[in-house]
Structure prediction request, 402 residues.
Amino acid sequence: MSWIFRALRTLLRRIRRPAVSEYEKYEEMREFGPVIHQGGSMYVIGYQEAKLILGDSKRFVKDINNTLPLEQRPLHADQSTDMFSLLYNNMLAKDGADHTRLRRLVSRAFTKRQIDSLTPRIQQIADELIDDFQADGEADLIDVFAFPLPIIVICELLGVPIEDRNKFKDWSHAFLGIADDEFSYFQLLTEFVQYIGRMIALRRAEPKDDLISALVHAEEEGEQLTEQELYSMIALLIVAGHETTVNLIGNGMAALLQNREQLELLQKQPELIENAVEEFLRYEGPVEFTTTRYAAEDVQVGDTLIKRRTPVTIILAAANRDPAAFENPIKLDVTRDAQQHLGFSYGVHFCVGAPLARLEAKIAFSTLLSRLPNIQLRAPHRQLVYNEGSIVHGLKALPVTW
Prediction:
């Protein structure tokens, strides 16, 4: 996966100017069209083109083997137990029946009824977190609120000890390609695999009423969940189960604090909160670009022919600010009807945890704006630093005062 990050960064460097945001670079890329060819890959920045590709899981596949004629495809799935196979063989990398089978196993935990039942607990967590730092008058909002809220929720759902939550930050960053150096990257991933292995062993020995136990139990009932898939599914749920919401809360609050009139409007009209969450997902969503797809055949997308086996990456951050799809897209507008955004992807790979992320965000923003009404940035917005080298788009820190 790291080659994707390098290729995209190379593309961005070609149009780099000092003190220019990623969004401004994407706008400069539009002069080359909605689909850009670079280094043997295709990068999609147009909204309609992105939606077409995301919605076409037959002609754009996740497993490159599925671009081969049937007789040339491997007869048996790779069951390697090396570190990368155990971590990345999840449903995001699957097509067709395999993807459906894996998604079905976890979707039971993310139904609307199941998620709605978590509302009182999520509200309790939000209030307790603010209780802990409100008297300080200033804080890094990522550290004290945006990170712990969703990690506590997903830990409780999975059955992971909450006291281990701080380990997940480093492990998640390594999983997503964010690491200080190559040694720490491999060391952190090794620790993550070992931790998941211990959790699987514990739940096999003593099942509980949690999602990890359900996945282990499903495997033992013959749902065809391999050991490789079990490790990968748990890793994905731990990482995606909090990382998206961390960045949704962080990016959304940063956007509000830089657009004070929108913050005040939301305080005056709290009924706009669900609408506002959709706008945050469009305006500065938590996922910058998708994992790679491959054209299973030659496909004409607008004026561009995408040849079979070509790697394709959708830049969600650019598609969600396409002026052909959204009026005045560079403006934050919490009254905008932004529900057609691609912040959670689209099609069969639409984020299974989207209902949970939306609920957590709704409670997080409402609670912050009501309990810290005078919240403001503690530093100029140009000094905010974002994580690099990852598909996620999120701040390293969000220093605020109130």
About this structure: The two ends are 40 Å apart (CA to CA). Residues 1-5, 13-20 have pLDDT under 50 and may be disordered. The chain has 17 helices and ten strands. Residues 227-258 form the longest helix (32 residues).
